[in-house]
Design a protein that fits this description.
By secondary structure, the protein is an alpha+beta fold. The protein contains five helices and six strands.
Length: 135
């Protein structure tokens, strides 16, 4: 059996690399993360080192790539579900043309000038179609 290690994927973030590694190990594919400890100590090294490299044996490359392909599809479906924000639609008319205004900076500046504590953060949504406003 050939024990040469081949890079099959590169990740910028340690959690993503760890998920890919655990997915491969769950499917009985031995793998190794190169640079994981360097990036773990200082995440800014990730770019300088070329990311965290996921390595597998040469004989396991086709199986590992297939597993990662299905793993990435599963992750992207979950990300699309997270992006659907209920506040992104108007509760009155159902429009998706929403403007979100964050007034926190204005009140923080006023709070600093007047030496008052800032107890609230204002974030308002408004619909461009019907003009409805809500928190």
């Amino acid at each position: 059996m050939d024990d040469n290690l081949v890079v099959i994927a590169e990740y910028r973030d340690l959690p993503q690399a760890g998920l890919a590694q655990s997915t491969l190990e769950e499917n009985s594919v031995q793998c190794f993360l190169e640079n994981q400890y360097m990036v773990g100590v200082n995440w800014l090294y990730s770019t300088a080192l070329g990311g965290i490299k996921l390595k597998v044996r040469e004989g396991d490359v086709p199986q590992a790539k297939e597993i990662l392909k299905t793993f990435e599809v599963d992750c992207s479906e979950g990300a699309e579900e997270e992006k659907s924000n209920p506040a992104a639609t108007c509760p009155l008319c159902g429009s998706t043309k929403i403007i979100t205004k964050n007034y926190t900076r204005k009140f923080a500046a006023i709070s600093l000038l007047l030496s008052l504590p800032l107890f609230f953060f204002l974030k308002r949504n408004s619909c461009q179609d019907c003009g409805h406003r809500w928190k």
